Request: fold
Amino acid sequence: MTSTVNIKSFWAKVLAATFIFPVAYLLVLSLAESWLFPELFPVSFTAERWSTLFSTNSELFNSLLLSLVVAVMVAFISTLSGFYTSKQLAYHRKRKLWMRLSYFPFVLSPVIYAAVLYYYFIELNLAGNIGGVILGHILIAYPYSVILFSGFWGNRTQRIEQLVQTLGGNRWQTYKHVFLPLAQGLLLICFFQTFLISWFEYGLTTIIGVGKVQTLTLKVFQYINEANFYNAALASSLLILPPIILLYFNKKYLFQKRW
Amino acid sequence: MKISELTLFNNKAETAGIGLFLLLAVLPLVLGVLYALLYSLGLIGLISDGFTFSHWQRALSDQEFWLSILYTFYIALTTIAISITSALAASLYINKPLQKGIAGFSAYIPLAFPAIVVAFLAFQLGSQSGFFARLFFQFGIITDTAAFPEMVNDPFGIGIIAAHTFMAMPFFTLYFMSLYDQENISELSQVAQTLGASRTAQLRRIIVPIILKRAFPTLTLYTIFVMGSYEIPLILGRQTPQMMSVLVIRKLRRFSLSTIPEAYITALVFIAIILTILYLLFKSRTFSYDLDR
Reply:
């Protein structure tokens, strides 16, 4: 019995090490001064890359800020519009049709979606600028938000709404005092999930942004192409930092079906 | 007496909500498909010569196109099969240690990784001068980089499958563990045990079928997600065969304009495959529209 417990504990530790190792590897690579074959560990370390990150005119720092701005905007717009829209869709008699339609853009490959939409982005002067990239990300994040909130608008919520109306509450008061407090947890989950959809996005950003909107994911790819693996590791570390912070606060912010 | 007509929208709020939905979720997809379709038929675009099926004929007779479809399915299905098997093993065998302490926390870490970072890591670890090759070299198993087996940019997509599995396996492990609790599987197993079922019979006839049936929609959606992935096959794949998403972008970005209609045809076929899978999924009884369920 004890040996079975020990074996299980051993395998759990092996799995944990497999999952933690990549984080450690990225941090070590970002701090390595030189790490060439066949060295198993870097010969020397440097903090220069990390320190120059926060200096003025650091390209990577600008990308970090840009990614943050884009992801926050996408999360904010998608969450609020998705919350509002999902109510109208959930109580509509064609609910099933709307829900089916919302799955299509959400599961479609973002890069292929961007490829077939690129022409319209050019026509609307939205290709190669931050506005276009934000809109492109919203086209994926918004349907996700609609789907996520659809479960919230059930019979119970409808009965509460009817009660508020019977007691004389108007639409604004219903949202302010009932719906938003009730959906607070789900709104936070949706905000962070749509933030991550935008934060992780590469394919659509590179097509719609024409490579000009240099978010962090584009920087990682650029550094890989240049064979500058140390900077790629630094940019990758910056990319995984916000999700790991979210994980520290609440696992549910990270563990949600996004597919 | 006023008889109200059955209209699509009942009030202004509904009109605004559904209007916004149509504008952001439905119209772009319709317009995108329409543009790709017209381009593929030679009706629009820089090389347009009027209505023609020649681009479709050329695309459909191209071996690379069919190879790409097969390769996309191969990568997605292999990834899902490996991920399901390993996640089932982890969630059923080591579920207790995985629910507490550092092991419990670590299972969430891969969810914090964007695809491009996973691709970079797979390249760093699995290439012929990568970390694993260095380990083999230090232990004297290989004497030079060429002796290490190709695990990235290889013909079998080992790197691509490994990278996707790294992302999918922990997600499914956590998902299966939550399903195990939600579906009261442990109680059902106990009933089966009381009735004389062995542990193997419980696994084969109760536990695994319930989990897989309940997880079927998510597994299908994840398969679609892998089929459409771009960054991982772009960094870890080869020039040929390529996954459909990579092939579309490569054909769109070539200097020769003649490959653009073929790129749109590949995109249209991909969209058609996804729509068919989704249609079949929607017809399945286990499908729920709510992600929370």
